[in-house]
Write the structure tokens for this entry.
Amino acid sequence: MTDPDRNQRVILRALLDAHPRLIGLADLGVVIPHPAEVEYAIAQLASDGLATLLGKRVGATRAAVRFDSLRTA
């Protein structure tokens, strides 16, 4: 089992890098090999308003993208 915060950071970075595309849940299995950990991390990110889940695809929210652009500017 890995650190839940680390998983969320890894997934959020993947979502931000892919923006505006959505990523399939299966594709996230490449960065985190345990499906339950992927699902948990996405659920946490979605509840925090950083990710949007549409069926079996997930993407970064506008708020997450904007925060990332402010942080890196």
User: Anything to note?
Assistant: The chain has one domain: 4-72.
